[in-house]
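Journal club prep — side note

Before the paper discussion, L.F. wants everyone to see what a predicted structure for a comparable chain looks like in token form. Sequence:
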Amino acid sequence: MGGEMEPGSTGDERVDAVLAALGALQGTPVAGHVAAFERVHLGLQEVLADTDGTGRDAG
């Protein structure tokens, strides 16, 4: 890293991609939000499971 992050960026492209799904919630019925939150939660868990414990990509 070392450079400046873009506004709204977490600094991790994988996390940013997962969180981008939340932007699709605007204008959608609230009844569909739970499923979207569950997908985001699962995606974030996958990113965490793929790290080496330092918060950085293991590869």
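L.F.'s comment for the group: The mean pLDDT is 83. Keep this in mind when we get to the figures.
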